[in-house]
Amino acid sequence: MSGNAFLHSMVRTMVGSLVEVGLNKKNPSWIKEVLAAQDRQAAGQNAPAKGLCLDQVIYSKDALKRII
Fold it and tell me: Is 10-67 a CATH 3.30.70.660 domain?
């Protein structure tokens, strides 16, 4: 999974929602509804942080120029 921004607990929210689908608590089409809602309240519970880790951060050269 990759992205261009970071939101607190975003990955945990996504994983928690996908687990609900995997456990047949929600229909796979529900994920599309959650994304369309653009509201975390529509998503499933956050997965525990246990086992989730940040693998790497890659910055473009342009991004570094804007910081400095």
Answer: yes
Task: Tally the residues of the chain.
Answer: 68
Taking CA atoms, 2 is separated from 23, 24, 26, 68, in Å, by 24, 26, 24, 24
> Which pTM was predicted?
0.67
Using the predicted structure, report yes or no on whether residue 53 has a pLDDT greater than 80.
no
Q: Where are the domains of the chain?
A: 10-67
> One-letter amino acid identity for 25?
K
How much is the pLDDT for 44? Answer: 92
DSSP string, 12-45: HHHHHHHHHHHTTSS-THHHHHHHHHT-GGGS-P
